[in-house]
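Justification of computing resources. Each target in the renewal requires a structure prediction run like the one illustrated here; the chain below, 636 residues long, is used simply to show the kind of job we budget for.
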Amino acid sequence: MSKFFVNEFKKYYDITVTKKQILKLQFHSLRWRIIMSNVKTVPAAVAMLRVLEAWGVENVYGYPGGSVNSTMNALDLEKENLHFVQVRHEQVGVLAAAAHAKLTGKIGVTLGSAGPGAVNLLNGLYDAREDHAPVLALVGQVPSTNMNYDYFQEFSELPMFSDVAVYNRVVMTPESLPYVVDKAIREAYKHNGVAVVIMPNNFGYVEIPDVDYASHTAEKSLPLPQATDTEVDQFLELVKAAKRPIFHVGSGIGNNAQLLIELSQKLQIPIAVAGLAKGKIPDDFEANLGTLNRAASKVGDEAFAAADLVIALGTNFPFANLVYRSHYFKFVSVDIDVANFGRHHYLDLGILSDSGSFLQKALGRSATVAPRPFYQASVAAMKDWKSYLERLMQKMDGPLEFEQVYREINRISDVNAVYGIDVGDNIINSFRFLNFTPEKKWTISALFATMGYGLPASIAGQFAFPNRQVFNIAGDGAFSMVMQDLTTQVKYQLPVINIVTSNNSLNFIKSEQEDLVMNFSGVDLYEVDFAKVAEGMGVEGITVKTLEELPAAFDRALEVSRDGKPILIDAKITDKRGIPVEELELDIVDGEFVERISAGYQETHGQMSPEEFFATYDGQELRPITAYFKEYGVKP
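Resulting structure tokens:
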């Protein structure tokens, strides 16, 4: 026997071994088999799922396929501890995972098979990457024995995920499967990004030692950078020298809104918010001027265009290259990530600090300033803007329009409601009309802006917060991309209130084309009876065509959802365009501020004054911010 082993080693490995060495190898091999015979084993895929459980994962969103059957088998074995949510398209699964991460701050997990299943995950993974959401994608691969044989649905998946993922690995052995998944989760949390683990299907069946592979430890907040006295004093000197300072606040404000409000009032600095900060500063705070650019408030855009000092607080504004280039101003950035300094504007002062530390120190080292004309004018203009929005919502005659739909959403919303908001006009309208508060939760596809986000987000929201009211707000274009997953709401008894604003138009794009020298192209949609579609999937559907029908429909939605069932309202609204405040521009002429409408807009719509522009959008009572500047004595 020893002679045989000696010859085989020499033949295949081109090395010479002695009989003594072979006997030693045989001994250790026998010893290993004896040890293993006394160790409890478990399928590698089960061990991998137990890693997820140790990290607190409760739901895996995905769709079965032949290349993930070992994982599906493990999910069945672990069904008492981990819930598999079967969606009807991988894109819905991965968007639900991304929404879960955004709503909870905890990792979202999605599953897709090799080939088309893997490709279908990309859309949602890019959404997670762009919005800095920790997501783990478990991706199937053909059995290792068939890899590199041009097997059915076998292809190199690593390159496909190399751009989107912060961690991207193919599992090489069954024993390493749980380890790789554990590391992937750590990397996703570390970088607030996407981790991808590609799993040859046969590995999941292999028995490996049943030990604790997870590295999850007690959660602990890492120390954050703190503002220094010198930095805060430099900031206060810039504020002292400014006439028209403004805060531009992002999601980095965290839970420090009250400190910001106090500093805003003390230093007389109004606040503009980035989209993802909506609701963090209460909408009813007088100096909250709302968002900027297109999904914006009139006063937010106007006041920012006049600012001579911008203090960016925890924001990474994706439209900065447009909005921040509108005019000259001094720029202060307060951020915990030094890589964000200078990303969007040349720095006059960068303060590496947590927002809370900065605000507390600024409050402690500053003196209350006299009423600032710019602050007063902005507050007065914002009050009138809010009155305009309220009047549109309370309209009781004429055709059904989007503003009245939002009035009803606000009316029936619980104080801690959760909103999944889809891409398109509903982003603009939500920012203007939805009653955001710190107690509520909401999520959008912010930077990647993928249509079809609202429904998956509502599924994730209802699973994450089973005792809270959840809405899906989507246009007819976005909803039709994912409407098959109404069946997921039914299957898992998710009492989501689905609101579809149907106007037979891709109105967000139509509005862009309206401002260009071109005909409308490709933006008309064939009308769909979404109530009937919903009923075919087991969801009660209500079609609303008039203002008079609206309140009863929403009362019914409240009743059905409280009974534990999903419902859909198909609101047949007009294709009216909301006022495009991004077309307002401010200049200085002869030492005075002058407001005008952009040349591009006037080229396609005709010459008009700001007052004529406002009247076009039923805003006869609106005034240019320059009128408030004159009233309060704001000068360039």
